[in-house]
User: Fold this.
Amino acid sequence: MTTTSELKPLLKRLRLGYMLNTLPERLALARRDQLDYAAFLQIILADEVTRRNNRNLEMHLQKAGFDQVCRLEDFEQPR
Assistant:
C-alpha cells in the first residue's frame, strides 16, 4: 500500500479529497526543494484555499447569471 492510497480515505473524510490531484506534484516539489514539514503543509493548504475560493467565485458568478465575466485587469488604463 502506498502513502497516497493510505491518505486517500483520510483526506476524503476531512473533505480534502481534491488534494489528491496535486499531491504527487507537491511531494516531488517538497523533495526537490528539501522543504520542511511546515512549508509543505503550508503549500498544500494554500492550494486547497485557492481551489475553494475559485470554486466559490465560479458558483457565485453562475448564480448571478452573468453572460460573461469582466475583470478590472481586462480594462485598459486611461493615459
